[in-house]
Amino acid sequence: MDKIMLTDPGIRPDREILSGILGENFPVYEAMIASVTGPECGLEPQWRWYNDGKAWLCKMVFKKKTILWLSVWDGFFKAGFYFVERHLQGIYELDIDPEIKEILVNSRPSGTLFPVTLEMRRKEQIADMLQLIDYKKRLK
User: Could you list the residue range(s) of the whole structural domain that residue 50 is in?
Assistant: First the structure.
């Protein structure tokens, strides 16, 4: 079973720690960070300890809007997006991996929010992630 990492509140995530946890998938993380923080995307990563989940999470923000959440697992990381029901149809219209759409079809809402979680293990997945980011940034 997959294990969430970064569970020590006293150890703030940095490049060295993330490299050690992500191993061969660290270059995927670095490429993703370079893409989302660049001028075209403009997201700001904000690492913070969350007591309710007992782990460090990275909130990715555009201006004041939360776009996605990153969590670090043993050997990979997850990118979590949350959408309200009225925005789901727009996701189905995106040119993204059909498996992502299938995840959405089978997801159960958390309150009024529908999660879309990507297990990031390959650089090729970054393109789909960027499309979801662009879509989320345009939502009102």
Answer: 15-138
